[in-house]
Structure formats: structure tokens, C-alpha cells
Amino acid sequence: MAKVVDRAIWSAGPVFIFIAVALIDMCVLAYYLIVFPYNHLALFEGETSLLGKLNVALTLLFTFYMVYCIHFHYYMSIRTHPGGMATSTTETDGNHSEEDAHNTLLEFEEDAQYPKICKKCNLPKPERTHHCSVCNACVLRFDHHWHFNHRYFVLFMTYMVLSAIYFLIFGWRPFIVCLDILDLEWPYYYPRALMAFSYILSICMGVALGALCAWHYYLILTAQTTVEFYSNYYEKGVAKSQGEIFVNMYNFGCIENLRRFFNIGDKYAWYTVFFPIPIPPRGNGRQFEKCQEFYMLPEAQQQDALLANQAVQDLEDIKDL
Q: Residue limits of the Palmitoyltransferase DHHC domain (predicted)?
């Protein structure tokens, strides 16, 4: 039964994508056909001053940027392969040989302490990798399908939430008018019902995506995936009961975690976060550096942490978490 459901989800993917794009673009049309003209009525009446025209130009530039970023990051998040054992590649740059050597050392370290074979793929299964039942393949740094498209997905949600807030702030007056409560004229070609639906949809998307986006930023700041969050929560309780200190081996601090996630500070400048351009994640998704605090733990506690991660992956093989 589970396989039938997974196959149905996989087959319905293009339909969900089409619906998502259609709903987003419906709100975009509602903004440009109703909200923007309503808030800049003087422009259409030919009474706009130079300062007013500059405000209109900046508003259009900002909204065009937001719309493009939403579509770009959504496209990249669904078109970029999340990464598996057959697709993982090392990020290339001018320091390629040095990075290869560093990743090789990490891989030797992992293989020495963390040998792992997926019971379903029969392929090597690096740390933080889990088997996806829908794709029927292992995914690197698995969460909702991560390593190589995680950055695009988070930025897509970020721009969606910000755009929804912007639409709600500047669209509430046209929304009241479209409800026909005040018996005012409706001079727009866009139907009242679609405007009302677009506004309510923006509220729903803002709340739902806002919660999901906040959750993922929390995971980014704490260097965890959803699976690791629940595992770490349990391990924290065990460590506390034994009088030990729990250390998330991947946590380098909030700022460094953000820098590593968005891959900025080394090859890419910080402001590239705002550029709708393809930027790969840091590393190849197969090896991950450990923080200094982890190596300061007793060796036995380090081994327990590695075995705990491996146990979670074993459970993943059985249940497809």
C-alpha cells in the first residue's frame, strides 16, 4: 500500500507544481491589476509629481524583483537534483585540489568510524543521508530533499512570505472594496471574487509558509535536519540523565551555520544571497566537518554520538522516515 501511495505522489508531482505556479501567478495578477493601480491612482490620472513617479518606479522595480526571485528559486528548487550517491559532486573553485584533499581526509575519517551501506540501495550511505521512499534512492543530507536544492527552497519560502506580507499590507483596502460591503464601484477587469480569493490565499500562504520557513531557519541556525532534531532531542535527554554535555557535532554557531548554509564568505560574497543566480551549496554532501567542541568530548562519547546517528539511519532503512 505504501508503495502505491509513493508512486501516486511521484506521478502527481507535475500537477502540484502547475497548481502552485497558477495560484502564485493569480496573486501576482491581482496585485498588478488591482492593488498597484488602487495605491497609485494619481499616476493613472496624470497628476503624479516627480517624487511620485520615482516612488512608482521603485515600487515596480521592487515588486518585479520579488516576483522574479519567487519564480527563480521555485524553479531551481524543483529542477536541482537533491543529491545522491550517483550525483554528488564536489564544489569546484579555484582551490579545487586543496578542497579535494580536505574532502578526502574527511571521507577517510568517516569510513574509519562510520561504515554504512544502505539496505535498500546497496550503495554506500554517508552520514546524514537517508533513503527516500518516493524517489526510491538515498538523498544526501535528507530532509525534504535537500543538499543541493535546500538553499533554493529556503529562499523561495523567504520571498513568498515577504511577498505575502507586502500584498496583505497594501491590498487590504481593495479587498474591502471587492467584498461589496460599501457598495462602491469596481472599475477593474479582475473579478471581485478572484481578488477576495487571492487575498485570503495570501493570508493562508503567509501563515503556513511563515511557520515552515521559521522552522527551517531554526534548523539552519542550529545545524540540524528535521530527522536530526528529533534524534538530538532524545540524545540531549540521555546525556542530561547521565550527567554529560550533549554537543551537536555539526553546530559551528548561528552566524557560521548561516554562512555555511548559504555558502557565503569564501567564494561568494554575503550580498549574493540577494542575487537570483545559481549558487551551489558548500561541499559535496557526503562529508561534513565536525565542530571543535565535538572533538573536545571524550572519545567514548564521540563514538556514542556517531553510533546514535548510524542507528537513526538504520531505522530510516526500515521505516522510511
A: 115-231
Relative to beta strand 137-139, strand 130-132 is antiparallel
Residue 95: pLDDT band by 50, 70, 90 thresholds? very low
Q: Which three cell numbers stand for residue 189?
A: 477587469
Q: What is the rounded CA–CA span in Å between residue 214 and residue 119?
A: 34
Confidence category of residue 158, pLDDT binned at 50, 70, 90: very high
